[in-house]
Amino acid sequence: MKRLATYAAALLATAPMHSCIENDIPYPVVECRIESIAAEGLAGAPSIDYNRGRVTLPLLETTDIRNVEITDVEITEDAVASRELKGRFDLRAPLYVTLSLYQDYQWSIEAEQTIERYFTVEGQIGSAEWNIADRTATVYVGFEDRSDITITSLKLGPEGITSMSCTDIPDFNDSNLTLLRDFTAPRRIDVTCHGRTETWYIAVEYTDVKVNFTGIDGWARSAWLYAEGLSGSELGFRYRRAGSEEWTTADPASITVDGGAFRARIRGLEPESEYEAVAYSDDDISAVERFRTEAELPLPNCGFEEWSMPGKIVYPYLSEQSAYWDSGNKGSSTVNETICEGSPDIRPGSDGKTSAYLCSKFASVVGIGKFAAGNIFVGTYHETVGTNGKVNFGRPFASRPSALSGWVKYTQGKIDRIDRQPDGMTLTTDDFDQGSIYVALGTWTAAEYGGTDQSPVQVFTKEPSTYFDKNAKDVVAYGELMLNETVGEWRRFTIELDYTTTSVVPTHLIIVCSASRWGDYFTGSTQSRMWLDDFELVWD
Fold first, then answer.
1. Where does residue 403 rank: exposed (0-12), middle (13-18), buried (19+ CB within 10 A)?
2. What one-character DSSP code corresponds to residue 450?
3. Whole-angstrom Cα Rg for the chain
4. Which of 81, 93, 173, 239 is the most exposed, fewest CB within 10 Å of its CB?
5. Are residues 234 and 275 in the same domain?
């Protein structure tokens, strides 16, 4: 790779998408990329999407999006950029660039910025309604006389660098909010930051709705309830199974209040059942809302009892038609190695007869080969390409468990094989390997992630850009367990799932277990071993 200086050479016309242009000259195909980027005023690490040819810069709310300084860019070695990429740019719209070597590739650099804004008043009902494009904010109250309103909070711009003014109240600012009281009509607020002034309008309106639901998300044994009521009043929920006469009041400790908006998670429900709920604000009660809980979906072969060996390869299933789990055995079998198989070493008290045994190895012929991490995963092994493998992760799964539980033993080896370094790390043979178990729920599609409808997320070990990304936009929930020491006796574990949203129902489940965490990079220890037994999904 090389650092990007100034590239202003004239280039051939580029394709209108991130793909190589057809070329009759038999040039080699070298995909040109932005490999890394640095900028001032970022809230986190930049995101580089190689598949879409897109870089996303997460900006702090105090960063001027019209004047973002990109300080460093690295592109594919010997590639040429159609424009200078270091300097200051207005990133309200994407910055487009063509990278060229033997073919042309279209890339974009975009900015994401979230500015926290709030507007609350005494006696408001629910939370403020925002129209960022029109620069308006509206709150609702349950009384018609709006000539003497008390503002309790107001923030319309970036923290610490924004000033507010009101033309007909000279002394008004963020320290004197009480000076602005009459809201019989919307009020104009001038908001200044970065040397520019924007005009906002804030309004207080009357509503005769005192409390109402804004959403209900029914899971298998719990439900998330969302409502709006009068701020400062007693806010809560009652619920019952459909057909029952008796209501249960949600535990007040479970209620989270934000102004007049409030929410709670109620537990102890039955799967695939109808329930009713009401929200209340003091003595005011909402209309009855009805919802249904999800099914508790099974996790097939969760005790790792089903194994077969129709030829030279060991499979974690009895037949391809019943397959749910798979491993890298298809790849390692090319050099007569098995990295996943059934073991009679089972956890104490198990009703089964076998566990899954994962064994990391250097898979080779006459010393030529690659490190292979012992692994088992939900999905299917797709194919071997040279010394690399393509695997498709995931199986259909439309429900929302709370956690994954199971049993594990682990022997930690010292790293003795290093092919590639994991991103941001420098491992040596003085370091120890790590085992890993991770579980994810998401809405991935084969069209976007390269797999199949059944197992949509394809990982190609030769291509790091395809490696599973727990922060990808289609991840609904994620949890992981890293084993950084030897676990000599069977140990029970529970991996809690952290949901990015409570309202999206996933389409697929992924579970990946590896005796060597960095196996995708062909790096780890040939002494690492992992045993797994009796997995189960936790639903409350």
1. middle
2. B
3. 29
4. 93
5. yes
Contacts 24+ apart (CB under 8 A), 241-247: 241/270, 241/273, 241/274, 241/275, 241/276, 242/273, 242/274, 242/275, 242/276, 242/290, 243/274, 247/278
| CB proximity list for 46: less than 8 A, separation 6 or greater | 36, 37, 38, 39, 55, 56, 57, 58
Do 345 and 459 share a structural domain?
A: yes
The answer to whether residue 44 sits within a structural domain is yes
pLDDT digits (tens, 9 = 90+) for 107-127: 999 999 999 999 999 999 999
- Point out which residues pair with 36 in neighbouring strands: 74
pLDDT digits (tens, 9 = 90+) for 292-345: 999 999 999 999 999 999 989 999 999 999 999 999 999 888 778 899 999 999
In a shared domain, residues 386 and 430: yes
Place of tokens 């790792």: 304
- Which residue range forms the structural domain that includes residue 9? 2-113
Q: What are phi and psi of 368, to 5 degrees?
A: -105, 120
Q: Residue 192, exposed/middle/buried by CB under 10 A (0-12, 13-18, 19+)?
A: middle
Q: Do 340 and 429 have their domain in common?
A: yes
Q: How many domains does the chain have?
A: 4
Residue 299 lies in a domain: no
Same domain, 258 and 220: yes
Do 287 and 330 belong together in one domain? Answer: no
273 and 239 share one domain: yes
Verify that 218 and 264 share a domain, yes or no: yes
- Residue that is written with structure tokens 């290093």 in the block: 418
Note the pLDDT tens digit of each residue in 122-156.
Answer: 999 999 999 999 999 999 999 999 999 999 999 99
Strands (E), 484-521: 487-496, 498-499, 508-514
pTM recorded for the entire structure: 0.79
Give the 3-state secondary structure percentages of the chain, helix then strand then coil, rounded to 5: 5, 45, 50
Q: What is the pLDDT of residue 19?
A: 42
Q: Does residue 303 belong to any structural domain of this protein? A: no
